[in-house]
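Components:
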Amino acid sequence: MAQKRVLMKGNEVIAEAAIRAGCRNYFGYPITPQTEVMHYMAKKMVEAGGNFVQAESELAAINMVYGAASAGFRAMTSSSSPGISLKQEGISYIAGAELPAVVVNIVRAGPGLGGIQPAQGDYFQATKGGGHGDFRNIVIAPASVQEIYELVVDAFNLADKYRMMVMIMGDGTLGQMMEPVAFRDEEPIENIAKPWAACGRKGDDFHHTITSIYIDPDVLEKKNIELQEKYKIVEANEVRYESVCMDDDPEIVITAFSTCSRISRNVIRQARDMGIKVGMIRPITLWPFPSKPIAEAADMPSVKGFIDVELNAGQMIEDVRLAVNGKKPVYFHGRMGGNLPMQKEILDKIVAIHEGTLKEGGIV
Amino acid sequence: MIDFSIIFAGFGGQGILSAGKMAAEAALYEGKEVSWFPSYGPEMRGGTANCSVVISDEPIGSPVVNDADVVICLNQPSMEKFEKQLKPGALMILDSSLINVRPERTDIKVIAMPASDIASDLGKMLFAPISMLGCMATETGCFSRDSFEKSLYEVLPERKHKLIPTNVAAFDKGAEYAK
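Structure:
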């Protein structure tokens, strides 16, 4: 049963959800705009009887996650863009060793130290690897504080189920804002056995070794093939997205995730008031990407074109274009540097698409 | 009500962020959708602080407010900055105890009230933005006095309940300046 709605910050809810999901190991290093995750953990994780460590660096924190996950415990770290870059070595090792872990990226504007305001410039890094080697992470992009709560709990289940890292990707807006959230009395925690965990041999006839090194090319290739087969299963089973106003033959389809999808939702209402039928496909999992519903929308005779809205120079748009496969034009609206698009900017482009005066491509 | 947006702005330490949170809590008490978004980052004491609150019957789009229905200003730099971010016909409430000048725009409604003097009479400067909440709520009807009071009892820990009557007194004092 859902409890009464309370007003909480996105970052605090990330921490609360993790504790509710049974995570008892959090290792972090402060960075704006995600530091409240640590603040909350510093108090509540300890109260919950878990381990909270403010590590000496981001690299240390991700490797502590590696250690706790190796022993079969639910573990998490969080950071923001520059810190996530530092963690990439550990993230690749986690993929190689097939460890379940949750990593939160409250994205800020880059590149480099960039700024501290919201952005989505880490889409490529999050969905196309980021670290070295052939690997994937499940990447989940919540769009509200309520959704943060539900998806963080799911993230721990997915991580255990597939022995994979799950990234929760938000942005400064989502981390810093307060919104109502209603917690459940009981969490849907899936207790998945971890016979592989390195917590003592206990009479088994094999050593519980956690490693990502395979010197023999044939052995490593076999390992790689196994990983890719696992990723295919994830792609087949774990795609999540939301369709908004797609049932009445929309003319223009917005693709947007997280904060941009919220702003776009209001644009849909405004456009429809003007008589332009706009719908939206909002990816919730950025990997695996919801290619199929986008491809289906591209096949709809009513759809004249797509407009992809992001807080970057156009990253997810590449996946949208792959799914659309040249069948319809894909336009773009993006803001960078920590700025958010205003409703009017998006609406103006939609009107231009409707009138056939907007050119494909181009930034902003 | 769809996306009724409020900006609270002033110096850090004036209770801007808390007042915004109180407004959001009061509207949440009425079952509304609400969002609260602070200016964040390397802020310093004495520097400017602001937050945006959105109240709506529908799910809220952007929590960042570019064109506000109400701006509550507790210093002159904020007034000058956020005057530009009001919708035509929207409301600016300013603390006349601290701000001597008035906005240049003529297409907005302005209520100048001595919020800091009211707060000083009540014994704590932090009541200044609370009195302005009272003015705003009464002027616009974005939430009721009752919801304001009851949400405080719900949200604050019991050891702080003794402070609620003074908060409500500040709210009532401010309500007198609604036109």
